[in-house]
Amino acid sequence: MMKIFVKTLKGTSFDVEVKPEDT
């Protein structure tokens, strides 16, 4: 599992957990 920090155009930010095999 790897955590990705995502910032949307609206300025909101949230963490997304994705599997390494998922592209």
- The number of helical elements comes to 0
What amount of the residues lies in strands?
over 45%
What structural class is derived from the secondary structure elements?
A: mainly beta
Task: Write out the strand line-up for the largest beta sheet, numbering strands in chain order.
Answer: 1-2
Low-confidence stretches: none
Q: Could you give the order of the helices and strands?
A: EE
Radius of gyration: 10 Å
Biggest β-sheet strands, sense, barrel: 2 strands, antiparallel
Distance between the termini: 13 Å
Helix content class: under 10%
Mean pLDDT: 72
Strand segment tally: 2
Shape: elongated
Q: How would you explain this protein's 3D organization?
A:
The protein has 23 residues and is an all-beta fold. 0% of the residues lie in helices and 52% in strands. The chain is built from no helices and two strands. The protein has a two-stranded antiparallel ribbon with strand order 1-2. A hairpin with a 5-residue loop joins strand 1 and strand 2. The two termini are 13 Å apart.
Write the layout of secondary structure elements.
Elements: E1 2-7, E2 13-18
Antiparallel strand pairs: 1-2
Key structural traits:
52% strand, two-stranded antiparallel ribbon, mainly beta, 23 residues, elongated
Gist of the model:
With 23 residues, the protein is mostly beta strands.
